[in-house]
Amino acid sequence: MAIHLRSAEELEKMHRAGLLVWDVLTALRKIVEPGLTTMDLEKFAEARIAGQPGHAAFKGYRGYPCVLCTSVNSEIVHGIPSAKRKLREGDIISIDFGMEVDGYYADSAVTVPVGNIRPELRKLLEVTRDALDRAIEKMRPGNRLGDVGHAVQSLVEQNGFSVVREFVGHGIGTKMHDEPNLPNYGEPGRGARLQEGMVIAVEPMVNAGKPDVHMRDEWTAETADGSASAHFEHTVAVTAGGPWILTRPREVSGPAW
Ligand code: MF3
Ligand code: CO
C-alpha cells in the first residue's frame, strides 16, 4: 500500500474541513476557564458545528462517544468529555477535534492552560508547540519521515521531557487515519521520502516525566508516572512551496498555535 498523493483540488477540500476545525478549536481555546466541565466544551463544539457542512470525525469512530477528545493534566490523548470533570485553575487541557467534509478529513489539537499554570507546565506547552513548529518546517519534498520525527524528539529531550511512543502522527485524507505513521522520534535521513501532495497529521505528544503510557479505560491514555502531558496537532500538506497547514486560514502565519 502506498502513501496517497493529493491533488490541488483534494487539498482544497481538506482545507475546507480544516477551517471548520480551526474555527472550533480557536473558539474553544478562548472560553476555557476554571469551573467549566469537559462536557461543557463538548456541548459548545456540537453547537458550533450545527448547520455547518460535513460532520465531526471522531464521534462514532470505533465507537468513540463524543466530537472532542479532552485530555486533562496527566491524560495524554483520547480523554472522553464528562460532566463530572470540572476544570480547575492550574490545569492544562488538550482539546482534539476532527471534521470530515465532502469525504475529506482534517484533524488538529491544541493544549490550553486553565487560568494561571505553574512555570513547568508553561514550559511543557511551549516546548511541545515549538516541537510541532519544527516538525512542520521539515514537511518538505525530499525530506524523510525520520527528519520530522527527529525534529520533535531532539527538541523535546533537550528540554528534559519525553515523547510518547504508543501514539503517532498519521497520514490523513479520505480516511482519518491513513498511511504513513509518523512517530515523534526518529533518525535524520531515515524513513519514507516526503513528496508533493502527501498530507500528514503531525501531532507531538510530550510527557513532562517518563514516556510510558497507562490506559485508564478503553480510551483514555495517561502517563504511567502521573506527570503532565501536552499535545499539539495540525494537518499538514507537503507542497512544492513548502508546508501548508490545512487546519488554519492561509493568512495566519507565525507559530503553529
Ligand atoms: N485525533 C485523534 C488521532 O489522530 C483521533 C481521535 S480518535 C477518536 O489520533 F476515536 F477519538 F476519534
Ligand atoms: Co490525529
In short:
With 257 residues, the chain is of the alpha+beta class. The protein has four helices and 15 strands. The protein is globular, with a radius of gyration of 17 Å.
Q: Order of strands side by side in the largest beta sheet?
A: 8-7-9-14-15
Structural class: alpha+beta
How far is the first residue's CA from the last residue's CA?
Answer: 33 Å
Q: How many alpha or pi helices?
A: 4
The unique ligands bound to this protein are:
2-amino-4-trifluoromethylsulfanyl-butyric acid, cobalt (II) ion
Q: Architecture, according to CATH?
A: Alpha-Beta Complex
Question: What does this 3D model show about the protein?
Answer:
This protein has helices at residues 8-31, 38-49, 119-137, 145-158; strands at 55-56, 68-72, 75-77, 92-101, 104-113, 162-163, 169-171, 178-182, 199-202, 205-207, 213-215, 221-223, 229-231, 234-239, 242-245. It has 257 residues and is an alpha+beta fold. It has a single domain (8-245), classed as Alpha-Beta Complex (Creatine Amidinohydrolase), CATH 3.90.230. The strands form four sheets. A five-stranded antiparallel beta sheet has the order 8-7-9-14-15. It is globular. The two termini are 33 Å apart. 49% of the residues are buried. Cobalt (II) ion binds at residues 107, 170, 201, 203, 233.
Element layout with pairings:
Blueprint: H1 8-31, H2 38-49, E1 55-56, E2 68-72, E3 75-77, E4 92-101, E5 104-113, H3 119-137, H4 145-158, E6 162-163, E7 169-171, E8 178-182, E9 199-202, E10 205-207, E11 213-215, E12 221-223, E13 229-231, E14 234-239, E15 242-245
Antiparallel strand pairs: 1-4, 2-4, 3-12, 4-5, 6-10, 7-8, 7-9, 9-14, 10-13, 11-12, 14-15
The structure holds 2-amino-4-trifluoromethylsulfanyl-butyric acid and cobalt (II) ion.
